[in-house]
Amino acid sequence: MSIIRHEFEKMNVTKIKKAKGNKNLTMITSYDALFAKLFEEIADMILVGDSLNMSFAGKPDTLSATLDQMIYHTNAVCTGAPKAFVILDMPFGTYNNKDQALTNAVRVYQETNAAAIKIEGGEDRAHIISHLTSNSVAVIGHIGLMPQFVRSEGGYKVRGKTEEDTQQLIKDAIAVEKAGAFCIVIEGVMSDAAKRISEAVSIPTIGIGAGNVTDGQVLVWSDMLGFFESFKPKFVRHYMTGAQQVKDAVSQYKSDVQDASFPAKEEEY
Ligand code: KIV
User: Fold this and answer.
1) pLDDT in tens, 55-85
2) pTM, full prediction
3) Mean pLDDT confidence for 217-238
4) What's the 73 CA to ligand 1 centre distance in angstroms?
5) Residue 227: pLDDT over 70
6) Residue 20 phi/psi, 5° resolution?
7) Which residues contact 49 (CB under 8 A, 6 or more apart)?
8) Measured in angstroms, how far is the CA atom of residue 117 from the centroid of ligand 1?
9) Using one digit for the tens of pLDDT, what is the confidence trace for 179-209?
10) Whole-angstrom Cα distance, residue 255 to residue 253?
11) Which of 164, 187, 199, 268 is the catalytic position?
12) Burial of 181 (0-12, 13-18, 19+ CB in 10 A)
């Protein structure tokens, strides 16, 4: 079944699962109502990623994001894009055990209109995902390079470089699927390994830095639109030169103010 949408059609878990094998699911991050509204009828899924801690709050990694912040931004996104399938990324430390995870997931459903939550972790966290899904929480897994492990692992490391690691990632994906997740994000994995992981499960996989072998792709909005200038990971494609365009526009505004050409007569009351 092709799910290429000629007209906007709100996504749900069933439709997303049916997209397995189509390689066309598009996920984008968003943190506010303004951009969420722009993405609403284009992307299949909007992820309120904890990457907002870096690109929105300017922090060096995602680890200090709190659930309160994620709920605040998810509410903004859901308000701006009421027709979108919105996912809240559970921040570091909010799903350390199954009871804590369920308490926090219930809070997400009570306080936002998010359709699903995302959890980083494979085999080791499958019991947590299982507890959530058996209590009616829709979960997207996240395996491979997991940014919430950056401090404990001493950096961001591309995965799937050895057969042993690839086998572990395949086990992770299978465990996450068995636990009831409806989709899995695969981040920072060698594309040959990502292909094998994707083929090992019957739920869709969404890649970021995992080649074009997954069932969809996700990019952080500020990366893909060229707003984030600090560094450009290899897997990011810039679809816009956002930072430069903003700087040019604001410089033009400044110069118009300085030479008194703004506001013009037609811009006056
Ligand atoms: O936080 C985020 O934006 C993410 C994506 C990179 C998948 O987890």
Assistant:
1) 899 999 999 999 999 999 999 999 999 999 9
2) 0.96
3) 93
4) 14
5) yes
6) -55, 130
7) 29, 31, 62, 89, 118, 220
8) 12
9) 999 999 999 999 999 999 999 999 999 999 9
10) 5
11) 187
12) buried
Protein residue with its CA nearest to atom 8 in ligand 1 = 49
162: phi > 0 → left, psi -120 to 50 → alpha, else beta; which?
beta
Does residue 199 come out as left (phi exceeding 0), alpha (psi in the -120 to 50 range) or beta?
alpha
Question: Is 187 in the active site?
Answer: yes
Measured in angstroms, how far is the CA atom of residue 269 from the centroid of ligand 1?
A: 45
What is the residue whose two structure tokens read 């068995």? 178
Could you count the other beta carbons within 10 Å of the beta carbon of residue 154? 8
User: Which atom of ligand 1 is closest in space to residue 120's alpha carbon?
Assistant: 8
- DSSP string covering 124-140: GGHHHHHHHHTTT--EE
- Within 8 A by CB and 6+ apart from 266, the residues are none
Q: Whose CA is nearest to atom 5 of ligand 1?
A: 49
Can you tell me which atom of ligand 1 is nearest the CA of 62?
1
Distance CA 93, CA 25 (A): 29
Residue the block writes with tokens 């936002």: 112
Residue ID of nearest Cα to ligand 1 atom 1: 49
The H or E element containing residue 245 is helix 242-258
Structure tokens belonging to residue 202: 């019957």
Q: What is the pLDDT of residue 6?
A: 54
Would you say residue 220 has pLDDT above 60?
Answer: yes
163 exposure class (CB count in 10 Å sphere: 0-12, 13-18, 19+)? exposed
CA distance 176 to 130: 8
Ligand 1 pocket test, pick from 35, 50, 139, 189 with the greatest ligand atom count within 8 Å of Cβ, gives 50
